[in-house]
Amino acid sequence: MSNFLQLFHPFPLKVISGRGIYLTLEDGKEYVDLFSGLGVNLLGYNHPDILDALSETFPMHLSALLEHPLKEEVASDLTRITGFDKVFFSNSGTESVEGAIKFMWKWLERRGSNKKKVIAFRGSFHGRTLGSMTVTDILLHQRFPTLDLNTVFLPFGDKEAFTEEIEKGCDFVILEPIQGASGVIIAEQKFYETVSILHREFGFGLIADEIQSGLGRTGEFLASTLFGLDPDIVTLAKGLGGGLPLGAILLKEKIANSIKPGDHGTTTGGNYLSLRLSKVLIKNIEELLEHVKNLDTLLKDILIPNLLTNPKIREVRQRGLFIAIELKKDKSDEVKEILFEKGYLVNSIMKKTIRLLPPLIITIEELKSAIEELNEVIEGF
Ligand SMILES: Cc1ncc(COP(=O)(O)O)c(C=O)c1O
After folding, report:
1. What b/e string do you get for 234-246 counting C-beta neighbours within 10 Å, with b at 16 or more?
2. 322 lines ligand 1 (CB under 6 A)
3. Burial level of 49, CB count in 10 A (0-12/13-18/19+)?
4. Is 218:322 a contact under the CB 8 Å cutoff?
5. What is the per-residue pLDDT for 298?
């Protein structure tokens, strides 16, 4: 009997070691990891720069009451790259979203415009704690208690419904620029333009949850840039700590100015060791953006058109290395199992969809042969 409370459905073999995009499992075989620890291992496994950073650590943790240069260094890297003004660190994605809602609340309170009306989207996923769940459509059926907010869930990408709801009044909007957990759902450009225009015109707060879409996954550091969105707050996490728990909340000055010491806090968020890895990770991501853009072109020009000739595939949704292959039938679990036998780890969601979140270091050749293998396996169903 296991003492660990298992809440997921893991692959059947235990991990022995990892190297680059490969994991060796207990059968001694090397597997290609095409979902990089659910989007966390952006530099793959045992990246030399991450190993170096780990070997030079001095404290594992310094409390929030002590200053050290890394907080400022990582915050200034993030603001330099994204154009935001301030950064607050957290431990995880859901905690970044909780903090973002609290910061938004303080700003609204200061403006005197807090009517408790929030717009979120159908298919959204923002985390598993109670505040994040208040704006998470795909977990509402669990019926846990949520925050006392009037959250309206609109169809993602429906600009008419969005305009209508904004005209009725809204305090803030939270969206994933690309919805990850629902299967890489990308709206039409017109929708993002409408959000941006109304954001400027009506002045509601805008939170972009980039926990899955950010950090170079789409070929831009933030996916918001790709669509011309100008959010007031961005949430980050997943790979930000180079494999260690780390989240961040990026804030525009107008929001940061509404927050004072005591309004929010954390014990281990922005811990020394995570920040040390984060510094290395951010530097590597900046260097990899061009590579991801090249892979994006390869996917768009060659690999996806090939997939679309497969009669078993309904649709492929993709930006950079954020990829979903939707099948015509509910066969994604079976496809995942066959691919596993062939040495590939993929993520199956919503019964019909294979989601790929490959490490950003995957090479052209590795991506090409993985997609070709996947195509062949799907064809067999
Ligand atoms: C868009 C988005 N928001 C929030 C979260 C929650 O992050 P965490 O699991 O680190 O709490 C996730 C996790 O998958 C996510 O994809």
Report:
1. bbbbbbbbbbbbb
2. no
3. middle
4. yes
5. 98
d(CA 277, CA 371): 30
Indicate whether 1 belongs to any domain: no
Measured from the Cβ of residue 375, the count of other Cβ atoms closer than 10 Å reads 18
Range of the domain at 86: 51-284
Residue 346 CA to residue 252 CA, distance in Å, equals 36
Res. 65 pLDDT band, cuts 50 70 90: confident
Q: Whose CA is nearest to atom 7 of ligand 1?
A: 93
Give domain status of residue 8, yes or no: no
Amino acid 56: pLDDT: 79
Task: Tell me the two tokens of residue 265.
Answer: 């806090």
Name, in order, each residue with C-beta under 8 angstroms of 295's C-beta and a sequence gap of 6 or more: 219, 320, 321, 362, 364, 367
Cβ–Cβ under 8 Å, residues 227 and 189: yes
**Is there a single domain that holds both residue 148 and residue 23?**
no
Q: Check which CATH number belongs to the domain holding 121 and give it.
A: 3.40.640.10
Q: Which numbered atom of ligand 1 lies nearest the CA of 210?
A: 1
Question: Is the per-residue pLDDT at 114 higher than 80?
Answer: no
Is 81 exposed, middle or buried, given 0-12, 13-18 or 19+ CB atoms closer than 10 A? middle
Domain match, 99 and 203 both: yes
Q: Which of 127, 308, 315, 295 is nearest to 217 (CA)?
A: 295
Average pLDDT over residues 115-138: 96
| Any ligand 1 atom below 6 A from CB of 180 | yes
pTM of the complete model: 0.98
